[in-house]
Amino acid sequence: MSEERRRSPRFSVEVPVRLTAGGNAFPAYLKDLCRDAVLVETHQALPVDSQVAVAMALPGTGGPLEVGGRVIRVAPGDGDAHRVAILFTNHE
């Protein structure tokens, strides 16, 4: 059994989000979420260490939420998509 390295619980979700990087916005799907990071799937290639904004409307939050983050990992997703791990940089 592998040891869990995360400091907070992770929740699997399937929510459409909007990513913004380098002044360009594009769609993505939120795959999982924890207090410090998200995993999204997108057809847009993003380099590790790039700065991004993630805009999402989660149920019960009262409206869109936008957080800044940094790409920390990119892996193959379904088909020609990429799974992108983003560490939040401007949350409390």
CATH C-level: Mainly Beta
- The count of β-strands is 6
Averaging pLDDT over every residue, what do you get?
87
The neighbouring-strand order within the major sheet is: 1-2-3-6-5-4
CATH topology: Thrombin, subunit H
CATH superfamily: predicted glycosyltransferase like domains
Helical amount: under 10%
Task: Give start-end ranges of low-pLDDT stretches.
Answer: none
How would you characterize this protein structure?
The chain has 92 residues and is mostly beta strands. The protein has one domain (11-88): Beta Barrel (Thrombin, subunit H), CATH 2.40.10.220. The chain has strands at 11-21, 24-33, 37-42, 51-56, 65-76, 82-88. The chain has a six-stranded antiparallel beta barrel. β4 and β5 (65-76) form a beta hairpin. The N and C termini lie far apart (32 Å). The mean pLDDT is 87.
List its traits:
single chain, 92 residues, mainly beta, Thrombin, subunit H, 6-stranded antiparallel beta barrel
Task: Give a short synopsis of this structure.
The chain is mostly beta strands and 92 residues long.
Ordered list of secondary-structure elements with their pairings:
Elements: E1 11-21, E2 24-33, E3 37-42, E4 51-56, E5 65-76, E6 82-88
Antiparallel strand pairs: 1-2, 1-4, 2-3, 3-6, 4-5, 5-6
